[in-house]
Amino acid sequence: MRLFILPCAILFFLCSAHHAFSQSVITVREIDQNNKPYDNKNNADINSQLMVRFDRSAFIRKVNTAGIGTPLPQDAVNLLNVLYEGTQKVEGWSKGMEAAIRNYVRGDKASLTTFIERTSSIAQEIVMVFDRDQQTRDYFESYEDVTDIWGGILYALNKRIADLEEQLSNSPAYSDVRIQIGGWLMHNNLPSPLHFNGLDANPLGEYYEVERWKFTLTDAQLSQLEDIQQWVKSSQQRELNVSEILRGEYVRQFTDILQQKLKTDFEDFKKEGEKVLATLQDQQIVTDVKQILAQGERVKALLTDRVQYYQAMVNNTPADATAVISRLQSDVTTINKEFNKMKGLLTDFQSHVPSASAEVKAQCANLLAIASGKISELAGMLIPDDLLHFGQQEKRLAQLALSFSDKVYSLALGDIPAEATTDLLYAGYRQSGDRVVIKMVVTNTNARKNLLEETHSVTLYRILPHLEATVGVIFAHPLTATRIEKDVQMAPYYNVLFKGILGMSQKWKRNSALPNNLLDMNFGLHVSSPDFDKDDVPELGIGVVASTLKDYLQVGWAYNLFQGANYVFIGFRLPIPTMNLGGNNNGAIK
């Protein structure tokens, strides 16, 4: 049971991430289905509303600093800066005053000098702001609730900022400046425009709500569960030690399809290729075939080395889960790169044969047929890396090429609405990992050039509480005596996971990609069908489960209702959709 430590350690390994937002002109606010707002988060719930909030004050300060348009009255801009900084300090002023009073009351009553110094320094900052502008002071004195000092200060500052924004927005300095703000849903990195009220004339998309409380299996999951059941049955409920599971069985399942194709498809090509090379006179085709054969051998050697490495690594039970994940990510990238190289070599070979002589075409006919079929299929393979990759920067590159259609309004500064909203329920079909990209472009109409550009990207996930069903295979270890001869028996499972239940989990999921893609930790109900009495009739087990790594890894406890036996298990949601579950497993690649 010692080797259960590794998946359990990975399951409960947590880390945090922090992303700092620089001051910007637009703020992206999420309003979730519980009507709770969240500003400038990296991620949002997939069914939320997104609101674009345009900060006219920040725009004026930024464009004036950048020298866009005719210079504004410096006194007005300076006052705007002072007032804005004041709004950012109100909360700090309030807490500073409260802390000074609390320390004085609870502390040494003789420390009057210290108390006066602390409170007077805050008061001086406030007085400086009000002495700067009489109108701000007048707004403060007109505030109705005289007991709410801090509310009155904030009211006065915001009221005066609004006055200055109105004044500067209507200034001739911006007569030739136009602003466009628009958004797109990026599904499979393909953009579809979103409708923001007041910013564009885009039509609403098709209504689609990602269901939150569905616990039944999809058609694809039902089909996968049937495949798993057939696989388990065809394996005759093989009994394995725990070490065999982690050291061999899961590695074999991960590499089985690669092994099969390299041993059959590539070997067929290699045999025919060597036969052709013995008589072929066309130097270009000879070079192509030799390069393909050499690349195939490199892929075989690489896969063999990696399988042996991970088998040895699991035996040693490494403690650093982060290093393991990092190494897996690097290796998947390397293997996929080698497959892509083979694909390029095959493309060259297939393009050179048609231009060769009739004799060469005849000699290469069989080789070309194999290359166009089995080997092209092999070369086109990629190990799916969604388990290992998350938040890739390359996913964000597509947003740079987004351009506005003629349905996005080109507005003067004074016409920009303070807020504009889109409802993701009317954005059409969406999946976890899709993104919303919001872009602002400021243009000088006379010079016909862009003066300022700002882009925000929000990734959509299922963040609010929801249910999710998963299927896969477990390796069950009975805690009581059964007819199982070794430690573990394979069985198909069906889990219903409760996700996003904890508020802390939701907060983390909005700030980081990790809990949404890799280090999510979920709990739920477990159903599986072991055969502890070995009569070829599946029994029913129910229990509880914890999962992580995008639900690829589960650990849990269950009770066999037919046999009265408790058992613990490790479960895997098999990550290779093209896996031949009914195929043979013959160990590492030879």
Relevant terms:
6-stranded antiparallel barrel, 590 residues, 43% helix, 5-stranded mixed beta sheet, 20% strand, alpha+beta
What does this structure look like?
This protein is of the alpha+beta class. Helices cover 43% and strands 20% of the residues. It is built from 14 helices and 16 strands. The protein has helices at residues 5-11, 56-66, 74-106, 112-132, 134-141, 149-169, 219-234, 242-277, 283-316, 321-352, 358-363, 365-379, 503-511, 514-517; strands at residues 26-31, 37-39, 43-45, 49-54, 177-187, 190-193, 239-240, 419-423, 435-444, 449-461, 466-478, 488-499, 522-528, 541-548, 553-560, 565-572. It has a six-stranded antiparallel β-barrel with strand order 11-12-13-14-15-16. Helix 3 (74-106) packs antiparallel against helix 4 (112-132) and helix 8 packs antiparallel against helix 12. The chain starts with a helix and ends in an 18-residue tail after the last strand. Mean pLDDT is 76; it is low at 1-22, 386-400 and 575-590.
